Amino acid sequence: MEQPQVHISEVGPRDGLQSVKATMPTADKCRWIDALAASGLREIEVGSFVPAKLLPQMADIAEVVRHAITLPGLTVMALVPNRRGAEAALAAGVHKLTLPVSASEAHSLANVRKTREQMLTELREVVALRNERAPAVPVEVGLSTAFGCTLQGEVPEDEVIALAVACAQAGVDEVGLSDTTGMANPAQVRRLFTRLRAELGTRAGAAHMHNTRGLGLANCLAAHDVGVRNFDSSLGGLGGCPYAPGASGNVVTEDLVFMFEAMGVSTGVDLHKLMAAREPLRAGLPGEPLYGMTPAVFAT
User: Is the N end or the C end of the chain the one with fewer CB atoms within 10 Å?
Assistant: First the structure.
């Protein structure tokens, strides 16, 4: 089978579910992940290993991982904020770890209650643990608020790149850029990803764009224009930082697949099956609004 030209990582079961008030039942989560994998998505961020009292939506993460790792050909990824989370994730059998490191100091303190420097220390500890216990498991970082922060405002590009280099020096396999607040524009995306790729080469990671101001797809296309081939997105645009009324959070997976396939860029994802994956999502989160512009014809 021909390799897809772009790699799409579905982050809805983590980024999406932790952003909504309701908690999706475990059986529904597993059915949803099954449907996502059946569409051809080869990587899914299935949740985060954080204390249940902080995020009750993720209390069943070990059980969800144990189910997801039985699906053939699927890379099962989970977010871990520290060494303790990484220990639990590796024990559950995840294939890939991702850590939240903020480019904005203000966001870092608000999000993980640690400075950027303290998160680099956490990162080194997680990498050391991985090297000792599961050397085949990649560790990646998506730099949050890389394009701007609602708490701090502008995030200097030199600081973003310096932090990305520091993460790579800490032993991370891949460093991507995340537009956590949806503040990015295409020119900025081209500029930062060009610099990131020049500094890190093959360790430059995914574009994680949000659609808060309606530029999510345009920013993904801008990243693709300068050589990015890995993209994060969420089915139905679930989750993210929807600070603007009526605006969705994450880039909608269905729209991203539609755009690339319409351009003749293969994703390896069957759009009809991807649209069908909305049904178990609706069943598990009744009443939760879903977004997307892809014509309903693909849902038949």
Answer: N
